[in-house]
Amino acid sequence: MIGGRGKEVVCIRDLGEIAKVYDRIASIYDGVYGGEQLSKYKAALSNGLMNYLRRIRNVKLADLGCGTALLLNYLLDVLGHNYGIHYVGIDVSINMINEALQKLKNTSSTMYDFIVADINNPPLRVNYFNIVTSISALCNFEDLVKLITYISEQGFKGLLLLTYIRTSLNKKCPVCLGYEAIEHGRECIYLIKI
Known about the structure:
Blueprint: E1 2-3, E2 10-11, H1 15-25, H2 29-55, E3 59-64, H3 70-79, E4 85-91, H4 94-104, E5 111-116, E6 131-138, H5 141-153, E7 159-165, E8 182-184, E9 187-193
Parallel strand pairs: 3-4, 3-6, 4-5, 6-7
Antiparallel strand pairs: 1-2, 7-9, 8-9
């Protein structure tokens, strides 16, 4: 969904084009973007997500724009491989999901499923998930608000961890449904309890 070089961010709107871009880079994605994604996970965990994870049992997490499941691997490293979690990764790129499955093939203690789908209208099971994440997959604030509205309409009750990339380094992260953002580089990170 995001393309560009350096500090310039370009939103790609056509789903077919998005899939093609990520299908092409799937095999190198972790090496190129893994460190950047890891820093976002650490920022989110240090700002409330870890406390939430420790309070609940039976974590049921939907990761919208999951890519190669870097978030799941990070959570397993931090929380331990025996931590009870059902992870559902949703991504438009079949190659990204195949990379995730390759990495997870020796992980037996965690339930995980993957769905190839559009994250703008994700196929979320009603009243099932207690955490929904979308890290670096939303292009703009309008997409963020639209997604939150959609998820709420599906009967979701839990924690949303969402980020979107600002198109300008000088632009301040807006307040979203009364929630302040954690500014992290070019991204706005929101932890929203619904």
